[in-house]
Amino acid sequence: MAAALAVGLALAGCAGGPASDGAGDGATTAQVRIAAAADLKFALEEVVVLLQERHPEVRITTTYGSSGTFLSQISNGAPFDVFLSADLAYPRQLVEEGLADEEDVFPYAVGRLVLWAGDGGGLDPADGLPALASDEVRRVAIANPAHAPYGVAAVEALRSAGVLDEVEGKLVYGENVAQAAEFVQSGNADAGIVALSLVRSDPLRGIGAWAEVPLDAYPRLDQGGVVLRSARDPGAAALVRDAILSPDGADVLARYGFSLPGATDEG
């Protein structure tokens, strides 16, 4: 199982996700290329399955990674049709750059942080972030705050808990939040501050223990997407947006621990 999980999380940053190949049946008439924040790795795959049950003629290609990296790539001409960011500010920045229209920006979820300790660790996440200052904790995985919104949130949570100075030297950075979770799962980190959506996924459910980080400890993770002006088939790209915002899509996101935009968060 561990090997399978490592492969699954390694897909964050690579092309993946369910897709109809359309080979030999002439069914595929459109392709949509999605750049998606790594915290969506498992939830989005379920939404794509729902979409393709209704629109088998559309082929979906999904690349997972850090939102800041995608922002830079799209600004430099990377060929994506839909951008699903862990920070709503990034799609809005693409509007400012003339690469998307304001009416095509949509909030889709609010993310949450957890403190997660893998199997065999001596940390009890219920003790909260101050427990990371213990000498028994040697390495703490987070997403790289230079370009990952979950990394920024993790740093601010440590600052809010008053232990950033003590823990900073223990931090190991994943390229994105899924890779940070992989560090914990593999034992390369004793604990991690990662996305709730990942520890609720089938591959990670039941591994170690986790506890939510208080919502008032870090900036609200308002997540949003945008259909880009460069989309090869804007109508097909809009189907992705509609699937995520549909009641079925919202149900999937809720199962992975996301709050819906506009909902009142409870700590």
From TrEMBL:
Pfam families associated with the record: SBP_bac_11
Keywords associated with the record: Metal-binding, Signal
The keyword Coiled coil is annotated on this UniProt entry: no
UniProt cross-references to PANTHER family, sorted A to Z: MOLYBDATE-BINDING PERIPLASMIC PROTEIN (PTHR30632), TUNGSTATE_MOLYBDATE_CHROMATE-BINDING PROTEIN MODA (PTHR30632:SF14)
Top-level division of the source organism's lineage: Bacteria
Family to which this protein belongs: Belongs to the bacterial solute-binding protein ModA family.
SUPFAM superfamilies the record matches: Periplasmic binding protein-like II
Protein name per the record: Molybdate ABC transporter substrate-binding protein
Annotated source species: Agromyces indicus
